[in-house]
Structures are given as structure tokens and as C-alpha cells.
Amino acid sequence: xxxxxxxxxxxxxxxxxxxxxxxxxxxxxxxxxxxxxxxxxxxxxxxxxxxxxxxxxxxxxxxxxxxxxxxxxxxxxxxxxxxxxxxxxxxxxxxxxxxxxxxxxxxxxxxxxxxxxxxxxxxxxxxxxxxxxxxxxxxxxxxxxxxxxxxxxxxxxxxxxxxxxxxxxxxxxxxxxxxxxxxxxxxxxxxxxxxxxxxxxxxxxxxxxxxxxxxxxxxxxxxxxxxxxxxxxxxxxxxxxxxxxxxxxxxxxxxxxxxxxxxxxxxxxxxxxxxxxxxxxxxxxxxxxxxxxxxxxxxxxxxxxxxxxxxxxxxxxxxxxxxxxxx
Length: 327
Fold this sequence. Notes:
Layout: E1 4-20, E2 23-36, E3 41-46, H1 56-64, H2 67-71, H3 76-82, H4 87-104, H5 108-112, E4 120-121, E5 124-126, H6 131-140, E6 146-150, H7 156-166, E7 171-175, H8 185-194, E8 199-201, E9 221-223, E10 242-245, H9 247-250, H10 253-265, E11 269-272, H11 279-282, E12 294-295, E13 313-314, E14 317-318
Parallel strand pairs: 5-6, 6-7, 7-8, 8-9, 9-10, 10-11, 11-12
Antiparallel strand pairs: 1-2, 2-3, 4-14, 13-14
Helix pairs in contact: 1-4, 6-7, 7-8
């Protein structure tokens, strides 16, 4: 029977609000690609990201445009020639891999030649706010071993000091989401060093990376918005110490596996991250955890409601997906 492709747009409420330097949200919208061959069903979830020029409508149109190719037997390796790196390709890549795994009765990591994923500690994200509100959030999450702290530019030394005071024992990652500027970057770096921060994500706007090659990195600096797939690695040389791999940036797990391998060969630390999504969106990314010094797959922990057969989280410990969820 020929394969058929369908898609759905689904919305999930956030527990409270999620705030970064670019704005605040109270719900997420995800696009799910579903492929069936009549015997088994494969699914892949993506999150369109306006920062990269994506919308629900544009991503849905890109996915729907591949219906004939999917019916004709489209392979994952061909997707890179048909679609750019991004959310649409991620949903299709993960759906095709899920379909392949279920059709063969094998797990996705076996198909990719990867070790079976093991439980790992994920970061737990604290939204951007006032120093007082962020200090309170840190106290509420103080039992978690790894916290990711959203920052916003001016006032960040006070924010990070408040978080450290609220959670004195947690390992900290900070994420500025491109909000720092040349005038405050070194002061903010120094504040992070004083607070014992382990990693700083994307301090400057993508395109301003060259400044990072000219200043000291008292704390390792990680590229997020500045890197999507392997084609962008050369431009990071001398600027970054680490990269954040997200499937919605790489355009799926197929490219993400190759990116992780090449990044490590270049001496870059790997972080595996996510957009704010459900367990279906996190599940494929767990296959990268063995590459990662930092895991940030807490999307479902920040939602008020997840999928019916979700990933298992024990506090901040994330477990590999069961086959009925994905892969």
C-alpha cells in the first residue's frame, strides 16, 4: 500500500508563562506530520520558530508539499535535497524514522547505528523576570541539579546573582537569547563567572559572533541561534566553545547525528536542546544524549498538559522513549 502523509496543528498550555528576551507565551503550537503505509504509523513533531522566519502556515505548507514524494517512497537521506534545515524537515525526518523503526520492529537508535539511550539529567528552565521573581523561582527549583536561566541583557548580573542565592548547589546554564551587547557582554560574563555558571548560550546576536573571538571566555560560550547544521560550523571557529543542537534547527535527527559527530571531532562541547514542545518532540532528541555534556530536554516539564503516552521524567532525570511514543 502506498504511504500517505497527513498533518495536524496541536496546541498545549504552558504551566504559567514562559518568558525569554524576545517575549512571553502561555501556550505552544506544534505541527505533527503523520505517515502511514497501512500497516504502521510514524509521527514527527516540530515547532515553527518566528525567529527563523517560520510560521505554522509556512511550515504546514512545506510539509504538505512533500505528500507526493512521501507516497513515492521518499527516504530520509533525500529530504536534505528537498527541504532546507528547519522545523518542516524535522517533522518529516522524525516521522519517516519512526515509520521505519515500527515497520522493521527495531528501535530507531539501532537503525542509526547509535548506542541505546540511557537516562540523563536534563536542565530545568527558569523564565526571564525580575531578580526577585527569578530568585524565588530558583528557590522553588533548588532541588534540581541543573538549571537553565533565561537572561535579557541589562540587569543580568543582578538576575544571575539572585538565582545563585536561591539555588546555591545547582549547576547553572544561562541563555541570553542574543540579548547582550558589546557594551555589557564582558560585565555579564564576569557576573556569570562569579556565580559559578557552567555554560553561556548565545550571548550576542547571530552575526555579531566575531566579537567573541576577541574577548576572553571566563565561562564557555555556546552557539544556539548562530548554528543550525554542519554547514555553519566553519563560521564558529575561534568564537564558540560549544554548540546547542536542536532538531528544529538541524531539520531532523538524521542531520543532527552527523552534526554532533563532526562538532565533537572539532573539539566543540555538545549540548542537546529543544524548542518548547511535547514528549513527541523530545523523544528523537534523546538519541543524542550520549554525545552531550549538557542535556536540555525539559519542554514537557514546562507544560500544563503533555501527550497521553509521555516520556518518563523522574524529577530532572529523563528516560528514553517507549516505542509506542516514538522510534
